[in-house]
Design goal:
344 residues; mainly beta; six-stranded antiparallel beta sheet; 2 helices; 23 strands; Arrestin C-terminal-like domain-containing protein; Arrestin-like_N; Arrestin-like_C; Arrestin_domain-protein
Length: 344
């Protein structure tokens, strides 16, 4: 076939939720889309498949050092035939589209992220096969975010060292949250408070692990003649949620706080506050049937695997008609709504 074939994947915008305009999906989400084919001539004896693949990946040299045999491990891989289920058929010329719908299981997979050491991706891959042409591919990335609670504390979390103390109201926050940090010094004024967001990335397999410590954000707040007060630290907007349920990698966070006093009064006080970066607002609980990915992997050999599945598309026949701002609905006569005389 001489003329090129254009293949693309289009997701419907009304599914999932959005972060900065980008669609995001979580456990239990359903999303719909279509594979579109644009061809100037007929495509004889063709089939169209859609694959949904989730993958954890370690950088090859990191995988070798960490004792991992394969640097890429599938989380899941499912597929469906959208065209040619009963055998290859001709695709007519012009623009065609073939619909699909996918439901994610109630399993907390690692979130979509890319790091220099490792990554986790979720991809839709459309494949068009025909006897008259080479395979044609199209790929669409899916952004996935797990459900992670941010539980409020009954009391503030407090630490004391070298005559200084700090306290925070919670140990779990969302992206872009502002963390209030209260500080206090017993003997001398505080000259500055330095706050660093630290992340430990642990990776490896079969008992062979390594880790990388990173500083993601840092801020020093200068102070003058104050024994106590509150400083505020803003979490980055693009921070990856805490990962502690993957068999290959984990991401944990902490807040490193340094309280410096006047030099003649001794050394600075250092504090490490463990943090959870969640995805759900304070007090919102995860569904009771939600399972962590590592538990799902451990049970995979003895029970049915829980993976995404292709489902029937949602029909909208029973929806209300589209509202037109220039035409009011045909209400009943206003006299029909008059109150009946009281019989009391």
């Amino acid at each position: 076939m001489n003329s090129p074939v254009k293949l693309s994947i289009d997701l419907l915008p009304e599914f999932g939720w959005r972060i900065n305009g980008e669609p995001v999906y979580s456990p239990g989400s359903i999303f719909e889309g279509s594979v579109k084919v644009d061809t100037a001539t007929n495509i004889p004896q063709a089939t169209i498949k859609i694959l949904f693949v989730g993958t954890e990946k370690l950088r090859p040299d990191v995988a070798a050092i960490s004792g991992v045999m394969l640097e890429q491990r599938p989380i899941f891989a499912v597929r469906s035939i959208l065209f040619g289920k009963e055998g290859p058929q001709d695709i007519p010329s012009g623009k065609q589209q073939y619909h699909f719908a996918i439901q994610l299981p109630m399993v907390n997979y690692p979130p979509t992220f890319v790091h220099s050491m490792c990554s986790c991706s979720f991809r839709l891959i459309a494949v068009l096969e025909s006897n008259s042409t080479q395979r044609v591919y199209s790929e669409q990335s899916i952004r996935y975010i797990p459900y992670i609670e941010t539980s409020p504390l009954k009391d503030t979390y407090a630490l004391t060292a070298h005559g200084s103390s700090i306290s925070v109201p919670s140990l779990s926050y969302l992206q872009s949250d502002t963390i209030p940090i209260h500080y206090e010094s017993k003997n001398s004024p505080v000259t500055s408070v330095t706050v660093k967001l630290r992340r430990r990335l642990t990776y490896g397999d079969d008992g062979v692990e390594d880790h990388l410590d990173e500083t993601l954000a840092s801020e020093e707040i200068k102070l003058t003649n104050t024994l106590n007060g509150t400083v505020y630290f803003n979490l980055p907007e693009s921070i990856i949620p805490t990962i502690d349920y993957s068999s290959w990698m984990s991401m944990t966070y902490s807040l490193e706080v340094t309280v410096r006093r006047q030099k003649r009064m001794g050394t600075a006080a250092h504090f490490m506050v463990p943090l959870t970066i969640g995805t759900m607002g304070p007090g919102i609980r995860t569904p009771s049937d939600l399972k962590p990915y590592n538990q799902f992997k451990e049970a995979a050999d003895t029970s049915r695997r829980v993976v995404p599945c292709f489902v029937q598309r949602i029909e909208y026949e029973d929806c209300l008609p589209e509202y037109a701002s220039y035409k009011l609905p045909n209400y009943q006569n206003s006299s029909d709504w008059a109150a009946e005389p009281s019989t009391a």
